[in-house]
Amino acid sequence: MPKSPLKLLKSQKRNAPPPPAESGFDVPKLARSTLNEEVYEELKQALISGKIAPGSTMTIRSLAQSFGISIMPVREALRRLVAEHVLVLLPNRSVALPLFTPERFHEITRIRTSLEGLAAEEGARHVTPELFDRLTRMTKLMETSPNASPADVLEWNREFHFGLYRASGMPVLVKMIESLWLQVGPLLNLQQQVFAAEKISVYVHHHRALEGLKKKKPAEVRAAIIGDIEDAAKIIGARL
Amino acid sequence: MPKSPLKLLKSQKRNAPPPPAESGFDVPKLARSTLNEEVYEELKQALISGKIAPGSTMTIRSLAQSFGISIMPVREALRRLVAEHVLVLLPNRSVALPLFTPERFHEITRIRTSLEGLAAEEGARHVTPELFDRLTRMTKLMETSPNASPADVLEWNREFHFGLYRASGMPVLVKMIESLWLQVGPLLNLQQQVFAAEKISVYVHHHRALEGLKKKKPAEVRAAIIGDIEDAAKIIGARL
DNA sequence: TAGTGTAATAAGTGATCACAGAGAACACAA
DNA sequence: TTGTGTTCTCTGTGATCACTTATTACACTA
After folding, report:
1. Are B58 and B4 in contact (CB under 8 A)?
2. Which CATH architecture group holds B35-96?
3. Which of the nucleotides lies closest to B37 (Cα–C1')?
4. Is there contact between A62 and strand D, defined as CB under 7 Å from any strand atom?
5. What are phi and psi of B133, to 5 degrees?
6. Nearest nt to A67, CA vs C1'?
7. What ipTM score was computed for the predicted complex, to two decimals?
8. Distance, angstroms, CA B42 to C1' D20?
């Protein structure tokens, strides 16, 4: 089991003396974010961008040292990711990014079709013209940017899906789908690389969804999103 | 916003000198459980048994004092429950059991029908004769125990549902459903009290499910479970 | 009496320390 | 060389302390 050193961010010590002067006005900072949230976001980002290999373990202390902070915020961030099933607790009580078995992947795909199908159908019922334009723009962006980085394409794809899902007005559902995307995060990256390499286009499903939105047929939107998920899963599933 | 004192358990201090002798054999203790897990389980139990009122806030220190331990395990247990959306983080960063709005309840019900429908249908495909017997027994138990405590009935009902769901062989799905049940936990208790008071029987759905299992018609099992969820939700939804 | 500003208290966050268990490294014997 | 036992290090868990922020209480003034 490889151990990832994970030198993500070498920030300065926190309890070192404060920066020299800091004279002048402070920015309002509406929502003071805590250190553990920053670590959480940082780790999440590392996961979805494929910087951490599935199966690798990580220790609290080494991460804390990489971040240049004490172990407390790292501890909380890791436990949160475990609670969200993004990381798993090994019997030794150390945390690891779970390995993807074909069974687990297949199961998550089935759950995704069920949940995202619901979100898509309900989102279709509440779609506004502005949202429709944004979704169209995202799809165009993906199609007409052959040289875009996989990370960019993934981000556009994410915006397309979640833009539609959020329109459902079902925040709990959206959170659950986000959690599922996080769990398949390491694979999404692989998926996009395969797509880019083999020039596979799954945008037919996006177009079907847009069509369904225009015709105000929520059931068609649902079918299109499910097709999108299943087609992508077929590619990845074959490579597990 | 009421503050629940929550005197759950007055255990002895942890870092007090160890018990006098402890001579004799220790039980093997396969999985050494940590203090934060115990607190987590304890709080979970308090939630599903309705001991904590929705909307009430709780503080780390007061809980720690109730348990007679330091704040660390309580801190981790609370954050875990927040990560699982059982508790919410208020803007003040204090935690609370969320209030149930009709919208949230309705949304969770829709998600439940989607997810539990899937689990029921898939469970029906893998049901064994032994499991069928157990499910039949649970239903009989519920029907023929007019004086059973609501907590007992809830437990039997839970075993019926999750026994079926677990047969699906989809552990991720089962975990997600468990999380949803936890979120509606405070209402499940209310529900059972209403049922007991008004002698409402929802067991027709259980019988339909058993029938579907016997006839090997997974789709019918799905429909029965969805009917069960929606009927129960109708009762509760009307009282929100 | 009502409103406001200040002091006192409580609570969450982060750092550090202490401890116990697991794992690795190493030395010694067969 | 291989197996075994011991030691040492590493890691997670829990306790305690320090700090900052938010809430409450209280006193003073209009």
Report:
1. yes
2. Orthogonal Bundle (1.10)
3. D13
4. yes
5. -60, -45
6. C14
7. 0.84
8. 31
